Every structure is written in C-alpha cells, then in structure tokens.
Design the sequence.
C-alpha cells in the first residue's frame, strides 16, 4: 500500500462524506425549490449549489478558526483578576458544561436505563403530537436540595451544604421515540411563527412562538399535569430535551413559569384573533382564565436544559431560567422559518449562476450579503425582537477546535446585548443562518454533544491527571 494511494483514499472518503451531507439537505429542500414552471430541480444541481454557497460561509469560519489559533499561540497567560469578567465567564462555562453533561446523560438513558437509586420513575410513556413521536419520562428525585428556576444548576449545585433541607425535584425528560429525518424536521420547522399575548411587568406584549412545537408542548403538559399537581409548590420542576423535543421542553418550561400562555385546546373557547398594523395574526389568550391553569403553575420553580434545540420563541419571552447549548455546525439549532427562507433564496441564486465568471460573482455577492444581513441583525439589537425566534435563556456555543483537539465554549444568548462577542456571534459564527458544512447533521447528534462537552477547555480548571498515572 503506497502513501499516494492512502492520500487519494483519504481525499475520496472526505469528499464522499461532504457530498453525503449536502445530498441529505438537498433531498429535504428539493420540493421547496420548484421553479416558476413547477419544475423540480435535480438533487445533483442542488448539491452543486450548496457546495458553492458553503465556500462563502467557509470564509467566515476560517477567519474565526485562524483568530482562535493565533490567540492561543501568541497570547500570554494572564492572571484571572487582570481581565474584567473572566472569572464570571469561566464560572458560567463550567456550570453550563456540568448542566449539559447531566442533560446528555438523561437523554441518552431515556430509552434504556435510569438511575433507580437517585430517581423514582413516575411515568414512562410515548405520545404522538403533530407528527413528532415523543418518549416522556417523569422522574422524581426526593433528596434533591438544589436550586430551582433561575438558581437551578451551574456551580451552585456543587456548593450546597448537604444538611440543607431536601425539597425534591421533578425531572421531565423528552426525547424522540423514533429518530426523525432531516427532511421531516425541516418540514415541521418551516412554519411561520404565530403571535401570542404575554404579560410582563403589568404590561401586555406580543411574542412569537413556533406553532407546531407550541402545540406539542401543550400535549406534554397535559400528559404530566397529574404529577405536577401531586407535589407541593416547593418542588423544583426541571425539563430536559434534545433536538425538536428540546424546543418542546423549553416551551413547556416557559408556560409553567408563566412566560407564555397555555394554548387553547379544541374543546375550549375559540381564541380571539385580530390583525395588527403589520397584518400579522395575533392570538389573544387570557392568562387568568380558568381553562389555562397550567400557566404559571411552576413560577420560580421551572428550569430547562436544551441540547441542539431550534429557536422556539422570540427573545422578549422571559427564559433566563433555561440553558441552551449549540454544538459546532448543528443545522437544526440554527433552523427557523426565516433562516430557511434565506437559504432557499441563496440556493436559487446559486443554481442560476452558470459559468466560472458568474459563479465567482455569486460567491462574492453571497459573502457580502451574509455579512450585511448579520451586521444588520446585530445593529437592530432588541428592535423587532418580538418577530424573531431566538436561542432561549443562557445560551452557549461549543466550537470544536483543531488546535489541541479541544472545544471552546462561548456565550451567545440573551445575556449578550451588544459588544464584541455579540458581533462575533452574528458574523463569524453565523448563528442566524444555516451553516453549510459536511458536519451539519453529524454535529446535531446527541453523541456529538457528549463528546464536545467532554472536550470543553475550561480556563482555571486543572486537567485530570488520571491518564498520566496509568
């Protein structure tokens, strides 16, 4: 076996892996890319267009990777008290890593085993809602004495004195009972957000929510309602989910907290609707109505950890009691009706570009349009945030790095109202657009989140020396 053969074989394998990822996405987008004459394009043409679009996004990804490596190689080690905010950021990353690994363990064991010494199994059931098969586990932890709501998780979990009185915790684990294809996930997420009325600080606001996942959350809450009411108002309520079920878990927690209203069921009164100045349909829900008693039932006690969850609701919904984690190039974590529309527009333009000159011009145009749209999204800040679906709560991006085979973790959520990190998140990390890479679907897998969290580089935390002693 020659070295030349090995190199060619590795290149072919890498090319095949890349093509398979784009082929998967092309099959999911094919029906949406019909021409004006209702002609469906061939998947090979879509794959070629996606590969050309990936070149523009690879430019920003390469800039971020080069900047990270340059910083790691040239920056001198500084004392932790010499950099403003470093201690807080390190503590936040450490807490999010611990919360994420615990959530991964619960999701991984949901279909198999669970810790019977720690948890009491209250319910193990499978339901189907809006085409999403969900396995729901309701676990009760009687000896839990940690925090709840905003104070849940993080470093606080490891610093609580053992003599503190246990108040118990109900943990609801929601996973897909059957793996869903990318095509089906895109079909579910390709729905325009609906508007609901929320009450915040004695004022009425309009918020957006993903309609399909919103209805699923209502069915989840109806299923677990008896167990929520069977415990006192001191018991913590914690939701965990991955992928679409992660978004459902987040919406469920928001309803229990009181941030979102409970959707009306078919037997209830018909929702009142009106049209606002932008011709958007608004669903008016009375939060004090006796037909929606679950709204606010877990106020101050609800929390959630979401893994690779698509943006479920707008940024003006109170959700700081949640932790959202996004790994690498995860496609569903960036997927919304708006980001999908932008991807379709870019793909149509790329498919019309024939010839080397036109392809080069389209590459330049696509690169500029990506940067411009992301800069505008960053510049608008909170303006129009009720229209845009966003990462809920305290959100973190886990970026795999070639240098040292580690992962870096960055805050990307609602806590970033501006500054360098927010601009970096909008442009270099392309959080508002579907990221086209060979890993777009692989990075969405639960195993990728487990491996990524296990390799997060935490400053100020000594590495485990167990391997050196062996």
Sequence:
């Amino acid at each position: 076996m020659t070295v030349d053969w090995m190199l060619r074989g590795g290149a072919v394998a890498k090319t095949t892996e890349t093509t398979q990822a784009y082929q998967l996405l092309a099959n999911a987008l094919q029906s949406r890319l019909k021409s004006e004459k209702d002609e469906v394009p061939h998947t090979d043409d879509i794959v070629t267009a996606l590969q050309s679009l990936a070149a523009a996004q690879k430019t920003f990804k390469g800039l971020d990777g080069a900047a990270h490596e340059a910083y790691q190689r040239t920056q001198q080690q500084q004392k932790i008290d010499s950099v403003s905010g470093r201690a807080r950021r390190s503590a936040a990353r450490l807490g999010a890593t611990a919360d994420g690994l615990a959530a991964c363990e619960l999701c991984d064991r949901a279909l198999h085993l669970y810790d019977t010494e720690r948890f009491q199994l209250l319910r193990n059931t499978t339901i189907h809602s809006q085409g999403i098969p969900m396995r729901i586990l309701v676990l009760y932890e009687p000896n839990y004495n940690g925090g709840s709501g905003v104070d849940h998780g993080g470093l606080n979990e490891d610093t609580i004195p053992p003599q503190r009185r246990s108040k118990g915790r109900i943990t609801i684990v929601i996973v897909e009972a059957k793996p869903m294809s990318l095509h089906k996930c895109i079909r579910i997420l390709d729905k325009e957000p609906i508007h609901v009325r929320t009450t915040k600080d004695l004022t009425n606001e309009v918020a957006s929510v993903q309609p399909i996942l919103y209805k699923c959350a209502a069915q989840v809450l109806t299923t677990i309602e008896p167990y929520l009411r069977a415990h006192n108002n001191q018991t913590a309520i914690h939701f965990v989910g991955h992928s679409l079920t992660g978004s459902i878990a987040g919406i469920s927690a928001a309803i229990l907290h009181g941030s979102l209203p409970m959707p009306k069921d078919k037997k209830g009164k018909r929702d009142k609707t009106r049209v606002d100045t932008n011709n958007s349909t608004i669903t008016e829900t009375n939060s004090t109505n006796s037909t929606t008693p679950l709204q606010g039932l877990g106020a101050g006690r609800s929390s959630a950890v979401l893994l690779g969850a698509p943006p479920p609701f707008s940024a003006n919904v109170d959700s700081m009691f949640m932790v959202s984690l996004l790994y690498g190039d995860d496609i569903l974590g960036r997927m919304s009706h708006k980001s999908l529309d932008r991807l379709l527009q870019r793909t149509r333009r790329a498919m019309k570009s024939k010839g080397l000159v036109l392809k080069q011009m389209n590459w330049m145009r696509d690169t500029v349009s990506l940067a411009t749209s992301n800069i505008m999204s960053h510049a608008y800040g909170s303006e129009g945030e009720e229209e845009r679906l966003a990462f809920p709560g305290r959100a973190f991006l886990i970026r795999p790095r070639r240098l040292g085979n580690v992962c870096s973790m960055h805050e990307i959520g609602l806590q970033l109202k501006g500054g360098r990190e927010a601009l970096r998140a909008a442009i270099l990390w392309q959080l508002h657009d579907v990221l086209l890479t060979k890993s777009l679907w692989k990075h969405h897998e639960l195993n990728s989140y487990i491996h990524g969290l296990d390799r997060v580089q935490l400053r100020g935390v000594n590495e485990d020396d167990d391997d050196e002693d062996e």
